[in-house]
Design goal:
single chain, Tetracycline Repressor, domain 2, mainly alpha
């Protein structure tokens, strides 16, 4: 995803509309429950027509995951901008966490009721595909560029990108089940730190 500063006025307006629709969908999900959210209400909350909604999203699920998809795209761009001498996993961790932190994901903890709705959303069969559509190739390319590997033929950039996505999925799955609640940012940082350390066996610490 290009830097927002490079967008034309028309492109920025379209981006703002996408974000407004996604935010409206999330608000309605928390207010009414996932099953009670329809595109007509999302459009009305965002102040646009249903036709406009359909021009941007194919379903409420696509609208609901848009913000995270946008964060993934931003992470790939940020990875390319990290200092050249920085270790890969330090750069990856910073690039993956920053969009979440900028959006306030490290702020107020979710309520139990909100977590119920997020669990419903994650249970949808379409969500993994919607989240990763167009994201993996971009992340693979950014990692390959940074490591001097071939995104088409080398294993490493695909392995590293897959590990990042797995860390995100594990963090989110834990986030929606943890009681008391904990921020997804802290869980994702823990997951990426473990990967950077070679994913050490936690049982080894207990045996000491």
């Amino acid at each position: 995803m290009p830097d927002e500063q490079s967008l034309s006025l028309r492109e920025r307006k379209k981006l703002d509309t996408r974000r407004a629709l996604s935010d409206a969908a999330l608000e309605l999900m928390f207010e009414r429950g996932l099953e009670n959210v329809v595109r007509e209400d999302i459009a009305a909350r965002a102040g646009v027509s249903v036709r406009t909604f359909n021009n941007y999203f194919s379903s409420k699920y696509e609208a609901l995951v848009y913000r995270q998809v946008e964060r993934f795209h931003t992470s790939s761009r940020l990875l390319r901008e990290r200092p050249a001498g920085e270790p890969l996993w330090t750069a990856l961790t910073a690039a993956v966490l920053r969009p979440l932190e900028d959006d306030g994901a490290g702020g107020p903890l979710p309520t139990p009721e909100q977590l119920v709705e997020v669990r419903k959303l994650l249970a949808s069969q379409d969500i993994p595909l919607l989240l990763l559509r167009g994201v993996m190739d971009e992340l693979i390319a950014a990692i390959a560029e940074r490591t001097g590997t071939d995104p088409e033929h080398d294993l490493y950039p695909r392995l590293a990108a897959g590990a990042v996505v797995a860390a995100f999925q594990a963090a989110v799955d834990t986030y929606v089940r943890t009681d008391p609640a904990i921020t997804v940012v802290s869980l994702l940082r823990e997951a990426l730190t473990a990967l950077a350390a070679g994913l050490p066996d936690p049982s080894a610490q207990h045996r000491r």
